[in-house]
Design goal:
Helices cover 57% and strands 14% of the residues. The protein is elongated and about 80 Å long.
Length: 247
């Protein structure tokens, strides 16, 4: 699907405008859905809250920056963020509002999908229509599962495994639990922070616990092979050496 506001065209304007993409997929616009649902919370706050229900950018919706125009049509320097939303996501959002507007929009979208499916398979036998509709639903479900697999993070037990591996590797880098470097809070804290920061940078996450589930084994191997930077190595050596010399 081409996720560009300039390429979609109006398909239906019943309760809420529904658009056709260049591939024939039906979508709605986030700001129009926000307006039709009569949401009082500002759009830039409301939409991220809706995404937290498990929707994925690039799969369930697409983010689009558009220019703001004055009433006379002149383009303004401001850029406004909007979203192209697939109908499955739009129906779910409408349902969780628990308002008459939400129920009405959800039902209209359901009816629209049914009518579109009937028109798409017009002329085919009922048996073949049923088979093709099941195929479409299966494909959507597989796409959804694939998207979830790509966004799922490691579970609690896997988080504990990574924590144990980090502890082992960092303690070894400090010279063991009996080493002065390990007993030095500033030195040991520096190495633990460095290790966790490197993990975050490598896997492009904001926390070690948010490593993607499908990359768990890779994370374990990465940590096992992790080594502190040269400055940290020198700091450990100096800390351990100075303490030994003073003894």
């Amino acid at each position: 699907m081409n996720n560009n506001l300039e390429t979609i065209r109006i398909f239906s304007e019943d309760v809420i405008p529904v658009y056709d993409t260049d591939t024939g997929e039906k979508v709605v616009l986030g700001r129009e859905l926000h307006e039709k649902l009569k949401i009082k919370t500002p759009y830039h706050i409301w939409f991220p809250r809706m995404v937290e229900y498990g929707f994925v950018d690039g799969t369930d919706y697409f983010t689009e920056n558009k220019n703001v125009h004055r009433e006379d049509g002149r383009k303004m320097p401001q850029v406004q963020i909007d979203h192209i939303i697939k109908l499955d996501m739009a129906k779910h959002i409408a349902m969780i509002q628990r308002t008459p507007e939400g129920m009405e929009i959800r039902q209209k979208l359901i009816d629209l999908e049914k009518n579109a499916a009937v028109n798409q398979f017009a002329g085919l036998s009922k048996e073949l229509q049923a088979i093709l509709m099941i195929d479409q639903r299966t494909m959507k479900q597989e796409q959804r599962i694939s998207a979830l697999e790509n966004t799922m993070t490691i579970d609690y037990n896997q988080q504990r495994v990574l924590k144990r591996v980090v502890n082992t590797v960092v303690i070894n880098a400090l010279g063991g639990m009996d080493s002065p470097a390990y007993k030095s809070r500033s030195v040991s804290q520096k190495l633990f922070m460095e290790c966790n920061r490197d993990i975050q940078d490598w896997f492009n996450v904001n926390s070690r616990n948010n490593v993607p589930k499908k990359r768990f084994d890779e994370a374990v191997e990465y940590i096992k092979k992790w080594r502190p930077c040269a400055n940290s190595v020198m700091l450990v050596q100096v800390t351990n050496g100075q303490t030994q010399m003073s003894m």
